[in-house]
Write a structure and sequence with these properties.
The complex is a heterotrimer. By secondary structure, chain A is mainly α. Chain A has a domain of 206 residues: MetI-like (MetI-like fold). In chain A, helix 3 packs antiparallel against helix 4 and helix 6 runs antiparallel to helix 8. By secondary structure, chain B is an all-alpha fold. Chain B has 2 domains: 76 residues, no CATH class; 218 residues, Orthogonal Bundle (MetI-like fold), CATH 1.10.3720. Chain B has 11 helices and no strands. The longest helix of chain B is centred in the C-terminal third of the chain and has 39 residues. By secondary structure, chain C is an alpha+beta fold. Chain C has 3 domains: 165 residues, Periplasmic binding protein-like II (D-Maltodextrin-Binding Protein, domain 2, 3-Layer(aba) Sandwich), CATH 3.40.190.10; 115 residues, Dipeptide-binding Protein, domain 1, CATH 3.90.76; 224 residues, Dipeptide-binding Protein, domain 3, CATH 3.10.105.10. Helix content of chain C is 31%, strand content 22%. In chain C, strand 18, helix 11 and strand 19 form a beta-alpha-beta unit. In chain C, helix 3 crosses helix 4. The longest helix of chain C is centred in the first third of the chain and has 20 residues. Classes of the chains: A mainly alpha, B mainly alpha, C alpha+beta. Chains in contact: A-B, A-C, B-C. At the A-B interface, helix 4, helix 5, helix 8, helix 9 and helix 10 of A face helix 1, helix 5, helix 6, helix 7 and helix 9 of B.
């Protein structure tokens, strides 16, 4: 029985053995085929590219200090001078949104990446040594982490470590480990006894080499799908942590923190919540669309669907 | 079947024990000192060092960590979760008082999620590739992409200021009463919308799988009307895997409650946990996490069992 | 009505209240509408109704309606009769004799008498969990019942502020002797019988606290039938609920929403709250151990700008920590002016020179003090201070500690700068001039300094503390305090920022309300739609 995971990625979908080169080609092929046929995914990809460009170049093009306060001109609605208005300390909201894009995307990507890296390592190791005491112990640990539904695990870790940019990323990374390690473990278990792995072992390849050369490569599909969806989850979770006061601390213009701060002036200056709220929402939405497209591209069952 | 059940039940114990141990260790090794809760907030410097040590001794914070841990475990077995440092009331009592509220809110949210998500998913699958499908799936993604506290505040503004049919926030007793239900609706909708998004997506893909199965094709080729095929054959089978998602959804309802309860002032276990974490109220955090973890693990177990009953094809090993 | 007028109105109301209390039970006006339920949005969850245990203003503001003080402090901080009709103090200030009212009963029907007062004081002496346990055991020698309505208290040691700090404190608001044996810290949220204008009805943790009218209240029954305190920690909800009309009062409206609420016809009322917001500076370590840095910080912070913008203009600037109009206020103490150029000059002279990155350096070390803050409003104000300091080249390392971690870190001196506030637990005692200097002057870690000059200042402050504590004469105590305050200013031991009043928003139909100390008092309130 397969169990749906937090993001609904099905586990253990055994991909056919692939080499690195095949994989690269087929990845690109599948992705573009999927994107071309899916307008929402295409639009989302364009949006994401744009937002990354904005994060990189926006603060350079719009050279306004996001920390500079002007209490005399606080809570001003959008105008020529301040295209997105000013916040409760009279800071330029556009400048904060642009710098915030850097922080929020960084938190989202770094948090997801941390979960992917550690989850993959754990999944590889447990899958490779599947059935051993190590596997059992590690999987019980993963079960334990699974016992904290949703954001709870991230809340707990952020609360224990205290609010800081780094700690939020740590919390998000740990939050992502259990799902990914299970996915990778499932893939590895199904590949372990296949000829090409057995053959490598026979010619004396060590565990590290087998993992890197054969197993990671074949688990790349599900990893990419999950990693994408996990970026969306990380950004949302970071916003939730910000709401609870456990997020990226001020004066960093992180979107979640800005949205959380905007609560206090939601009547006096409603637009203050619209900008970061919409930015988070659209980014998460776009990442989810792309993640969906990727899943369709990698899920063998979707082939059947496409043909029917 | 029985053997499987027993095995699954036995696995619940180490999982929960592990979760509790993890929380206990993490929280006790974290920076911050719970003793500050005993000192008046207005005068953080006023308490003398002797008084602080005396207080520490009285609440047992001066004992070695393993002793505190063992006595905590001994308490858990008797459902004695200790005394809240901040409220000074037994944690188990507080949890028993709040748990039903969170469960009621969670069940109502789940009901809303199912009522919205399943029909949307089924319709999307039937009209696959149509405009309706695209719109419905986009809406479903909206639901899972919006930060839930923002959605809560937007809904509260909408209802409180422009469309005053429901109370903006608060708690009106059990949702089995009309007044209680009125208060519960807004937070339940807030939580339910994100759940509905996930359910709709899952229902759609499950439905599509079933529509591609041989027997559905056979039924179609026999000339049965689409309506009969969809509702009589496909949907019944498609709903089976959705049951598994319900268990997990219930978990996400619980975690959604953690934030949404704070927004709407709902006195449930989520809010109890959040204030416990913020105040470093160890017994409260341990107790609430224990109960949420047990609830979540049991919900998953129950889901698997139900799944086994309705789908005899499942083998237990 | 503008704000200063309002503040004056409140002062008048306070005085009127005190006068009403001072006289015999005020005759109940029968012309005001009776009945109704008043719903109040409360900014935090109350988790203690029993004022004997740790109780902050949040708990007091809700629970004080259940009880009465033995002695009431009026707007000037002068003691006035309440449950004690009169009292005598012996010439050596060691024996206090209270004459009690003989017409009061507790909510459970038990008679209020001398034995009840003794039992309540004894409770604090016996139970180490009570808030004032230490103070009581150090100060009180014996409590005797002289006759049914007379109590005599003999002190162990002279305590100039005993009347204000102990007898008028909420710690000794009597509860029924029948309840005392059953009460402990574990029953903090359970109801009890007091003598107050309202009786306990229900308490739901994290949700609400409900009280109902005490028909037999000794000053006359209140007009309102029920008061519901709803705990709504998310403050934006207060605005929604006020605008929707689903609550009648918010004791903590968002200051930025005040103009909107006023425009919608709500009453905005301020009441002076004694306490002070400050920027504490740790003189024992780091950059703030240097006098020049502390002085520069004080001149670089524009507190008037903060008050006028984010604080809605409500607070008044502090001269030296003591609010104007209170007994220990001295005009002779110097104050601090905003002068960023002077701040820059002080730093230049001390060798802290502006670097190309806008941060000051000396010998290659950047001027980056650690800025630790508690969450919530203090952190928001601190964000402004951080930016103001950055503009003169002081680049603070900003940190927000969570509720539970801030207290111990602050107490242990794990900060260089910190934005915080202190309030007297007893407003009247502040006004009456009995605030303990050791409550007030332990905010800078001076005890742990390694600088001999500062250690000498610490000794001098300690002497002043002892002097103030044992000086009964108010003028002499004020003089001692002025010396202490001036030392604080001279050595820049902390930066006293402002005194913030409480701000309350009420629906137009709520009338007749008063403020007792800084909290809403609803005995005479009524609802007129």
């Amino acid at each position: 029985m397969t169990e749906p995971t937090r993001t609904g990625v099905s586990e253990g979908a055994a991909a056919p053995p692939e080499t690195v080169r095949d994989l690269r080609m087929s990845l690109r092929y599948r992705f573009w085929r999927e994107i071309r046929g899916n307008r929402m995914a295409l639009a989302s990809t364009i949006y994401l590219v744009l937002i990354v460009l904005v994060a990189i170049f926006g603060p350079l093009a719009y050279d306004v200090d996001p920390r500079l306060q002007s209490l005399a001109s606080r809570l001003q609605p959008p105008s020529w001078e301040h295209p997105f208005g000013t916040d409760q300390f009279g800071r330029d909201v556009l400048a904060r949104m642009l710098h915030g894009a850097r922080i929020s995307l960084f938190v989202g990507f770094a948090g997801a990446l941390g979960g992917v890296v550690f989850g993959t390592i754990l999944g590889l190791a447990t899958g490779f040594w599947g059935g051993t005491w190590f596997d059992h112990l590690a999987m019980r640990l993963v079960d334990v982490m699974y016992a904290f539904p949703g954001i709870l695990l991230a809340i707990l870790i952020a609360a224990i470590l205290g609010p800081s940019l780094f700690n939020v990323i740590v919390a998000l990374s740990i939050w992502g480990i259990p799902t990914l390690s299970r996915i990778v473990r499932g893939v590895v278990l199904s590949l372990r006894e296949q000829e090409f792995v057995v053959a490598s072992r026979a010619v004396g390849a060590g565990p590290a080499r087998i993992m890197a050369r054969h197993l990671v490569v074949n688990a790349v599909g599900p990893i990419i799908v999950y990693a994408t969806l996990s970026v969306a989850g990380s950004i949302l979770t970071a916003a939730g942590l910000g709401f609870l006061g456990l997020g990226v601390p001020p004066p960093n213009p992180e979107w979640g923190a800005m949205l959380s701060d905007a609560r206090a002036v939601v009547f006096r200056a409603p637009y203050l919540s619209y900008f970061p709220g919409a930015a988070i929402f659209l980014t998460v939405l776009a990442v989810n669309f792309v993640g969906d497209a990727l899943r369709d591209a990698f899920d063998p069952r979707s082939e059947v669907r496409r043909m029917s | 079947m029985t053997a499987y059940l027993v095995k699954r039940l036995l696995m619940v114990v180490p999982t929960v024990w592990g979760a509790v141990t993890l929380v206990f260790l993490a929280i006790h090794l974290a920076p911050g000192d719970p003793i500050s809760l005993y000192i008046p907030a207005d005068f953080p410097v006023n308490a003398s060092e002797e008084r602080i040590q005396e207080l520490r001794a009285r609440v047992g914070l001066d004992r070695p960590l393993y002793e505190q841990y063992l006595s905590f475990l001994a308490g858990v077995v008797q459902f004695d979760l200790g005394t809240s440092l901040q409220h000074r009331t037994p944690v188990s009592e507080a949890i028993l008082e709040r748990l039903p509220r969170t469960l009621e809110l969670g069940l109502l949210s789940l009901a809303i999620a199912v009522a919205l998500g399943v029909p949307i998913g089924v319709l999307s699958a039937i009209r696959r590739g149509s405009l309706l499908d695209n719109v419905a799936m986009s809406v479903a993604l909206f639901g899972v992409s919006i930060p839930n506290f923002w959605l809560g505040i937007l809904l509260m503004q909408l209802v409180g200021l422009y469309w005053p049919i429901l109370p903006p926030s608060g708690f009106g007793g059990s949702i089995l009463t009309l007044d209680g239900l009125r208060f519960a609706l807004l937070p339940a909708i807030t939580i339910g919308i994100s759940g509905a998004g996930g359910l709709a997506r899952y229902t759609r893909s499950s439905m599509l799988d079933v529509l591609n199965e041989d027997y559905v094709r056979t039924a179609r080729s026999k000339g049965l009307s689409d309506r009969v095929v969809v509702y009589k054959h496909a949907m019944r089978n498609a709903l089976i895997p959705i049951v598994t998602l319900l268990g997990l959804s219930f978990g996400s309802m619980l975690s959604g409650a953690v934030i949404v309860e704070t927004v709407f002032g709902w006195p449930g276990i989520g809010r109890y946990l959040v204030t416990g974490i913020q105040n470093r109220d160890f017994p409260v955090v341990q107790g609430a996490v224990l109960v949420i973890a047990v609830g979540f693990v049991l919900a998953n177990l129950l889901t698997d069992v139900v799944y086994g009953f309705i789908d005899p094809r499942i083998r237990y090993d | 009505m503008n704000r200063s007028q309002l503040a004056r109105t409140i002062l008048l109301a306070l005085t009127a209240l005190a006068v009403a209390f001072a006289g015999t039970a005020a005759a109940q006006s029968t012309s005001v509408p009776q009945g109704g339920t008043l719903t109040i949005a409360w900014p935090e969850a109350v988790n203690n109704l029993d004022l004997a245990y740790i109780a902050g203003w949040v708990a007091f503001g809700a629970a004080h309606h259940l009880t009465d003080p033995l002695i009431l402090l009026d707007a000037e901080g002068q003691p006035q009769p309440s449950l004690a009709q009169s009292w005598e103090v012996s010439d050596d200030n060691m024996v206090y004799t209270l004459h009690l009212r003989d017409d009061v009963t507790f909510h459970d029907g038990v008679r209020f008498d001398a034995e009840a007062v003794r039992a309540n004081i004894q409770r604090t002496l016996d139970d180490p969990d009570t808030m004032q346990h230490e103070r009581f055991t150090n100060t009180i020698g014996s409590v005797e019942v002289v006759d049914d309505f007379t109590v005599r208290i003999t002190l162990k040691e002279l305590d100039a502020s005993f009347l204000h700090d102990v007898l008028a404190h909420w710690q000794v608001r009597p509860i029924s002797p029948a309840d005392i044996p059953n009460r402990s810290a574990a029953t903090m949220t359970e109801g009890y019988a007091g003598t107050g204008p309202f009786k306990f009805e229900s308490f739901v943790a994290d949700d609400s606290f409900v009280v109902v009218k005490n028909e037999n209240y000794w000053r006359g029954a209140p007009n309102i039938d029920r008061v519901v305190f709803r705990f709504l920690p998310e403050l934006s909800v207060h605005t929604v609920e006020l605008l929707a009309g689903s609550v009648d009062v918010s004791t903590s409206p968002i200051l930025d929403d005040v103009p909107l609420l006023e425009a919608r016809g709500l009453q905005i009322v301020t009441a002076p709250a004694v306490g002070v917001n400050m920027l504490t500076m740790n003189v024992s370590r780091g950059f703030t151990a240097e006098l020049a840095v502390r002085q520069a910080i004080r001149h670089a912070v524009n507190r008037q700008e903060i008050v006028d913008s984010v604080l809605g203009g409500f607070p008044s600037l502090s001269r030296a920590g003591v609010p104007e109009g209170t007994a220990l206020y001295s005009e002779s103490v110097s104050t601090v002016e905003y002068d960023p150029e002077l701040a820059g000059r002080i730093l230049d002279e001390a060798g802290w020179l502006m670097g190309a990155d806008g941060v000051r350096y000396r010998d290659g070390v950047a001027l980056r003090p650690q800025f630790l803050n508690p969450p919530g409003a203090h952190a928001a104000n601190a964000e402004i201070v951080q930016e103001q300091l950055r503009l003169v080249g002081i680049d603070t390392r900003f940190e927000v500690a969570e509720g539970g971690t801030y207290g111990p870190r602050w107490r242990e001196g794990d900060y260089e700068l910190s934005m915080t506030a202190q309030g007297g637990t007893n407003w009247g005692s502040f006004i009456g001039g009995s605030v303990h200097p050791d409550d007030f002057w332990t905010v800078n870690q001076i005890r742990f300094s390694e600088d001999p000059e500062l250690l000498a200042v610490a000794d001098e402050l300690r002497e002043i503390i002892g002097e103030a504590r044992s000086t009964v004469d108010l003028e002499e105590r004020r003089a001692a305090w002025a010396r202490g305050q001036q030392l604080f200013q001279d050595y820049a031991l902390t930066y006293w920022l402002w005194h913030a009043p409480t701000v309350t928003a009420l629906q137009p139909w709520v009338k007749g309300y008063d403020f007792y100390t800084r909290t809403l008092f609803l005995h005479d309130a009524y609802i007129e739609r």
